[in-house]
Amino acid sequence: MVDSPSFRRTIGSYVPPRAYAPGTRAALEKLGYRMVPASTPRQARDERCLPDLRIVDERHVHLIPPEEDRTPLVLLTATSRAGDKDPRIVGYAPRPATLEVLFPILQCALENTPRTVVRASTELPGSCVRADQRWAGAVLSLSELGCLIRTSEPMASGLEFDLIFPLPLHPAGRMVSTRARVIEQCGEGVAMAFEEMPNAERQAVSEYVKGRLTGR
């Protein structure tokens, strides 16, 4: 089950829905970004509506209030970058904008400890194996770079072991197996970083997480 949104930031969206790849806006909402449509010139100039960041089509950037409004801008472009020198611009995304492109831009612009990849809440059984030891656990959240796992066994920072967990709809129908390293204790779980995960497994995890967020 994916967590209900707990909004931390408000994003003014000055582009039509088709400017986003399918599922992108819904995924960003699940990740804590309230997406507020503001596509008309009147809305764009309304000083009462000051989001934390604005997503704007490069062709309509002139609708945004004057430069004294320092709200960061992300421009959606026909290509990957544009030549605009407006200091408010913090990133560019080609249309249709995907979750993979927008998320790290929003993180770097708005968060104190930005993430590079998305993660989703999960309810997956997991096994930790080291030498002749095996511990049972539950994967509480997952990204292609690591996870949060709940286990009754004490785990010191830096501990490495093999982590095995099932991935629903895995393309090969296999269990995912990867080397994992303990980062820190986080509430009821232990944060872990994946080490030496094969590219095929990493891609499968990435697609699974994206599917959890976008509903696909």
Topology overview:
Layout: E1 9-14, H1 24-30, E2 33-37, H2 41-44, E3 53-57, E4 73-77, E5 89-94, H3 99-110, E6 120-130, E7 133-142, E8 146-150, E9 160-166, E10 175-186, E11 189-195, H4 199-214
Parallel strand pairs: 1-2, 1-3, 3-4, 4-5
Antiparallel strand pairs: 6-7, 6-9, 7-8, 8-11, 9-10, 10-11
Helix pairs in contact: 1-4
Strand order of the largest sheet: 6-7-8-11-10-9
Strand count, sense and barrel status of the largest sheet are: 6 strands, antiparallel, barrel
Count of extended strands: 11
**Shape summary:** elongated
Write down the overall mean pLDDT.
Answer: 85
Helix content: 10-25%
Cα-atom radius of gyration: 20 Å
What is the tally of helical segments?
4
**How far apart are the first and last residues' alpha carbons, in Å?**
14 Å
Protein architecture, described:
The protein is 18% helix and 37% strand. It is an alpha/beta fold and 216 residues long. The strands form two sheets. A six-stranded antiparallel β-barrel has the order 6-7-8-11-10-9. A five-stranded parallel beta sheet has the order 2-1-3-4-5. Helix 1 packs across helix 4. The longest helix has 16 residues, at 199-214. It is elongated. The two termini are 14 Å apart. The mean pLDDT is 85.
Keywords:
single chain, 216 residues, alpha/beta, 6-stranded antiparallel β-barrel, 5-stranded parallel beta sheet, 4 helices, 11 strands
Give a concise summary.
The chain has 216 residues and is α/β, with parallel strands linked by helices. Helix content is 18%, strand content 37%. The protein contains four helices and eleven strands, in the order βαβαβββαββββββα.
